[in-house]
TrEMBL record:
<feature type="repeat" description="WD">
    <location>
        <begin position="96"/>
        <end position="127"/>
    </location>
</feature>
<dbReference type="GO" id="GO:0060271">
    <property type="term" value="P:cilium assembly"/>
</dbReference>
<dbReference type="GO" id="GO:0005929">
    <property type="term" value="C:cilium"/>
</dbReference>
<dbReference type="InterPro" id="IPR001680">
    <property type="entry name" value="WD40_rpt"/>
</dbReference>
<keyword id="KW-0853">WD repeat</keyword>
<dbReference type="InterPro" id="IPR056456">
    <property type="entry name" value="Beta-prop_IFT80_2nd"/>
</dbReference>
<dbReference type="GO" id="GO:0030992">
    <property type="term" value="C:intraciliary transport particle B"/>
</dbReference>
<dbReference type="InterPro" id="IPR056157">
    <property type="entry name" value="TPR_IFT80_172_dom"/>
</dbReference>
<feature type="domain" description="IFT80 second beta-propeller">
    <location>
        <begin position="293"/>
        <end position="575"/>
    </location>
</feature>
<feature type="domain" description="IFT80/172/WDR35 TPR">
    <location>
        <begin position="603"/>
        <end position="749"/>
    </location>
</feature>
<dbReference type="Pfam" id="PF00400">
    <property type="entry name" value="WD40"/>
</dbReference>
<dbReference type="Pfam" id="PF23335">
    <property type="entry name" value="Beta-prop_IFT80_2nd"/>
</dbReference>
<dbReference type="Pfam" id="PF23387">
    <property type="entry name" value="TPR_IFT80_172"/>
</dbReference>
<protein>
    <recommendedName>
        <fullName>Intraflagellar transport protein 80</fullName>
    </recommendedName>
</protein>
């Protein structure tokens, strides 16, 4: 990926260009010391005068209204004043003494609040009509740049060598940290990935999280870094300096480096779709960088965006390639599950690997920010229309009605789909994951709630709906798994940089503590927690660095992008996939033969989990014996020897460490003695007594077992209810109790 640089050498400002912004219709605007703001077409590079100014403008920003309209432009001046002007040229407000000294930066929020800062060290908040709301910050040094937080409840600003996050609500603590060894010149806060970007006079650019933890620091450049800006999608950012424009990945490594020969790039702005970057140059020019040569790979196919509106499709095995032209600029591309999805500003194209020449094409209403795919469906995240779910023939399946989510800022890490469910991190509460039905778009009545903020989610892609699992990483970078239809969160790993489910089978891989980890069958934790560590394969690799990201997990190959941008692959054993195929088809003998041939402990453990999940007890007995779980083998044998199906189900629930479920099965089947005896064995004496009294049965049996237990342990009775029971039943006969138990078992066998 790189920038394709375009500059109109013949048309430029007469003086230094200090700021650049984008309108809603992808037209650029530039501010200069020649008292003008020009309007630019990024394709033809033609310009026209937008407005003449009465003084030296320092910065400006548009308040974006409805689609296709720009309501107000705020323009700041070096004398400390600012004006609010309509697009038509009508001045709505002129504030002459907003600051003492020059206003250096100003920014509109989504709700229409205007923030200004300047040489006087003041940061002020103004209403849409230009009325002062608050003097939020007053320090003794100039404030050089301000940015609103993603939720518009705080402001990021920089002064001297420091970066600050100031909450708007009174009483909340300000966050601050030393960011650079020199003056901090520019900052930016991405609304999608929630990361902070900065540059300074120490000739470095850096990436931080919102707590001030350093995620990346560049090597010193030859000149001061004068501007930085995130792409709206949060996947990459641009860096400007003297005669330099650089395109970087969000983790910091460089995609491309360009010598511009236009002086210092003083300001950078991106289009809303993240495809074009504009830079304000020191010689008065406006530089346009079109993002081209985006590349995606899947299976044997590679797709390269060679021009704004042209893609090249390469067959890596047969060494064949073809090109497709589009009438509009390509905005997004995604390729999975044997289908390629391409979106432009008004159309969506669906290419099947079986037929590249006749794609399905349909209109879209708005710009698409994200594309998510599963085997049967895909969804488009549109800025105004929300999430639209389609099949691979272009038919609209559903449009879930989701409240409280800003779709233009929705990260691909906070949305996941499978053939039956759409999972989404709640926009109003980042600790909650909500679920929607794919076919109808209806919100389901179950959610997953966690104690910490959820950063990333992913659904497994198994065809069995009852086996649907959600994996997620929280704020502490801990990896968890939970069933979708029942909250039972289990922690799998700590210090997790990235994770991904296999595209077809229930295998999960992750990069945890700089180790590559694969769980052959993580769902086994819900049948026997002891199996979780036994189905895990961990590989230590010096090639894996911090912040490495897993790109794909297809068949037995895992593709990983390291922090430095290099792509590496990790191979996974092919045998788990063969095991899954055999088990899903009910070929248990074949699965056993496979494990005996391979002789891997992890594979036997995976077979044990699968067979227990499918209640194939004979296979489970063999698999558990192979991993030397003698106690579990004995229990499984006991379950096999029980003739009552209800009793088998209850014992299996007990094996899965779900005693309440086992008790419910017993009581519903009227196997009261077994329910009482189970609680006795679990030393839940009072619960056993509750059952005996509730169903008026085996009270003498319970008392006999209780007194026998006290005699063996040398204890005295301490439970008043048992003392009362002993006074009511003064004498019991062990022989009679044994006969009663035999009769109970005989009755079970008849059932």
């Amino acid at each position: 990926m790189r920038f394709k640089i375009k500059v109109n050498e013949n048309t430029k400002h007469a003086d230094i260009c200090t700021s650049v912004k984008w309108g809603l219709n992808n037209e650029a605007y530039s501010l200069s010391d020649d008292y003008t703001i020009l309007k630019w077409d990024p394709n033809s590079l033609e310009s026209s005068k937008f407005v003449d100014l009465e003084g030296y403008g320092t910065d400006f920003d548009f308040l974006q209204g409805q689609r296709g309209s720009t309501d107000l432009v705020a323009i700041a001046f070096s004398d400390g004043s600012f004006i609010l002007q309509q697009k038509t040229g009508k001045i709505e407000k002129k504030e002459k003494e907003a600051h003492k000294g020059a206003i250096i930066s100003l920014k509109w929020s989504v709700d229409g609040s205007l923030a200004t800062c300047g040489e006087d060290g003041a940061l002020k908040i103004w209403s849409k009509t230009g009325i002062i709301r608050s003097n939020l910050v007053q320090i003794d040094k100039p404030i050089y740049c301000i940015v609103w937080s993603p939720d518009n409840d705080a402001i990021l600003y920089c002064s001297d060598k420091m970066i600050y996050i100031k909450p708007l609500q009174a009483g909340q603590k300000q966050v601050q940290w030393k960011a650079h060894d020199g003056l901090v010149v520019k900052v930016d806060w991405n609304h999608t990935n929630n990361l902070i970007l900065s540059c300074g006079e120490d000739c470095k650019y850096k990436v931080f999280d919102t707590y001030g933890r350093l995620l990346f620091a560049s090597a010193p450049y030859d000149y001061v870094i004068t501007s930085v800006a995130w792409s709206p999608n949060g996947d990459y950012f641009a860096v400007g300096a003297y005669d330099m424009l650089r395109l970087c990945d969000k983790t910091g490594w460089t995609y491309s480096f360009h010598k511009t020969n236009q002086g210092s790039i003083l300001n950078i702005a991106w289009t809303s779709d993240g495809t074009i970057c504009a830079g304000a140059a020191g010689n008065g020019s406006v530089i346009f960088g079109h993002v081209v040569e985006r590349c995606i790979t899947y299976d044997k196919w590679e797709i390269i965006l060679t021009e704004d509106n042209k893609i090249q499709i390469i067959d890596l095995i047969d060494e064949m390639n073809s090109e497709f032209d589009f009438k509009e600029r390509v905005i997004n591309m995604s390729m999975k599950y044997n289908n390629l999805i391409i979106t432009t500003s008004s159309h969506c194209y669906i290419y099947s690997f079986r037929n590249w020449n006749t794609p399905y094409i349909f209109d879209i209403r708005d710009s698409v920010s994200q594309i998510c795919q599963c085997s049967n469906y895909f969804c488009l995240v549109e800025v105004s229309s929300g999430i639209m779910i389609y099949n691979y023939e272009g038919k609209l399946i559903s449009n879930p009605k989701i409240q409280g989510t800003k779709f233009e800022h929705l990260s691909h890490k906070k949305i996941a789909i499978s053939n039956d469910l759409l999972a989404l991190v709640d926009g109003g509460n980042n600790k909650v994951v909500k679920f929607y039905e794919m076919n109808s778009g209806k919100a389901l009545n179950f959610t997953v709630e966690h104690s910490l903020e959820i950063l990333e989610i992913n659904l497994n892609q198994t065809e069995m709906i009852g086996e649907r699992k959600l994996a997620f990483v929280d704020q502490n970078r801990d990896l968890h798994i939970t069933p979708v239809h029942k909250k039972d969160i289990v922690k799998l790993a700590a210090m997790t940089d990235s994770f991904l489910w296999n595209e077809k089978f229930d295998m999960l891989c992750a990069i945890s503590d700089q180790r590559f980890v694969v769980w052959y069958y993580p769902t086994s934790v819900y049948v026997d927690r002891d199996l979780l560590e036994q189905v895990k394969v961990s590989k230590e690799s010096t090639d894996l660095t911090r912040n490495s990201q897993i790109l794909s997990f297809q068949d037995t190959m895992v593709q990983i992008r390291r922090k430095d941008g290099a792509i590496m692959t990790q191979s996974v054993s092919p045998y788990p996939a063969l095991l899954f195929e055999a088990c899903e088809r009910g070929k248990w003998e074949k699965a056993i033969k496979l494990c005996r041939y391979v002789k891997e402990h992890t594979l036997w453990a995976a077979l044990a989990g699968l067979s227990l999940q499918f209640k194939e007890l004979s296979t489970a007995e063999i698999a558990l014996a192979a991993i030397e779980a003698a106690d579990k083998v004995l229990f499984i044998q006991k379950i096999i020897n029980v003739e009552s199906e209800k009793a088998k189900s209850a014992l299996l629930a007990l094996f899965f460490k779900r005693p309440q479920e086992a008790e419910n099965i017993y009581t519903q089947a009227k196997l009261y003695y077994r329910a009482i005896k189970m609680n006795i064995k679990l030393y839940k004496w009072e619960r056993a007594l509750d059952l005996a009294i509730q169903y008026n049965t085996h009270q003498d049996t319970l008392l006999a077992y209780r007194q026998k237990y006290l005699e063996q342990t040398g204890q005295q009775e301490t439970i008043p209810r048992f003392e009362k029971l002993a006074s009511d039943i003064k004498k019991y006969d062990w022989v009679e109790i044994q006969n009663k138990i035999k009769q109970e078992k005989a009755r079970e066998q008849k059932q």
